[in-house]
Write a structure and sequence with these properties.
It is built from six helices and 15 strands. The chain has 270 residues and is of the alpha+beta class. It has two domains: 98 residues, Rossmann fold (3-Layer(aba) Sandwich); 165 residues, Tumour Suppressor Smad4 (Sandwich). A six-stranded antiparallel barrel has the order 8-11-12-10-9-14. A five-stranded mixed sheet has the order 2-1-3-4-5, with helices on one face. Helix 4 crosses helix 5 and helix 5 runs antiparallel to helix 6. The relative contact order is 0.15.
Length: 270
């Protein structure tokens, strides 16, 4: 049997496609119990986006999955689908992408992630989007507009102390310092164009600049991945073990899910 688990929070609660099957409200399920009760031949389709995958990998041991699990893309950002060169609106088999996922540690808790663990203005954008959704649940979120507002005045860059596989770095005026499993974050920003999710490593991308206007003027290059050519303000560091500390608390986002008031995080890809 094939089960369709619908995330009612994905895409602001709007189902963009006629799935043609009975949908189960995933928010009312105990995921661990549900998957344990499946027969070997059963299949599961997740109807949602990056946050829907993130919920699965943090509630089920996906390294030991016995059933085929698919994603039917219906998310807001769909960065995972961008990364694997696919599009929303049909079923994509997930199993090979759910193995050996990296672990982030934030405020004493562990989280697995499928796309990225991001610190800086990307976290601010998710924080601001959550605030907008709380007031106007059906409002379409324009992440680009939020990022521009952050770059102009709302987000203050930080000093970042970064350690990757024992190598230490310090950067001032940091706007972004994510650890990337995939290439994309923030709904289509190609932050790490050279990242291979099967390489066994993470890519840390440091975007730093003292000038707000220069940071804003160059920011659109992130959407095509050409920002990495700006070596005066973008640094790329690859490794397995990452530690990042900021000079003040900021919001972080893990696959689009927000955690507030964070001063440091670590991430590890074994």
């Amino acid at each position: 049997m094939k089960y369709y688990l619908y995330n009612p929070l994905a895409n602001n609660g709007i189902l963009k496609y006629n799935i043609g099957a009975e949908l189960i409200d995933a928010s009312k399920l105990d995921y661990a119990e549900f998957f344990q009760g499946l027969k070997d031949e059963d299949e599961v389709v997740l109807v949602g986006g990056d946050g829907t995958i993130n919920y699965l990998i943090n509630h089920v041991d996906t390294d030991s999955l016995k059933n085929n699990v698919y994603l039917y893309g219906n998310g807001t950002g769909n960065d995972f689908l961008y990364d694997i060169g696919d599009t929303p609106g049909h079923e994509v088999l997930l199993n090979r992408y759910l193995k050996n996922l990296p672990v982030a540690r934030v405020n004493g808790k562990e989280y697995r992630f499928i796309n990225n663990m991001s610190f800086g203005i990307d976290g601010y954008c998710c924080e601001e989007a959550d605030r907008i959704k709380a007031g106007k649940p059906n409002k379409k979120i324009n992440y680009t507009a939020i990022a521009i507002k952050g770059l102009l005045y709302a987000f203050k860059p930080c000093t970042a102390w970064i350690e990757v596989d024992g190598r230490e770095y310090t950067y001032d005026n940091v706007w972004l310092a994510p650890s990337m499993k995939g290439r994309y974050c923030g709904g289509g920003m190609m932050l790490a164009p050279g990242q291979d999710r099967f390489s066994g490593k993470l890519t840390v991308v440091v975007y730093s600049c003292p000038s707000k206007m220069k940071s804003l003027a160059r920011f659109p290059r992130i959407f095509k991945g050409t920002h990495v050519e700006l070596t005066d303000m973008v640094k790329i560091i690859e490794g397995n073990r990452v530690y990042v500390k900021f000079s003040r608390p900021c919001a972080v986002q893990i696959d689009g899910e927000t955690i507030l008031d964070v001063t440091e995080y670590s991430a590890e890809q074994k």
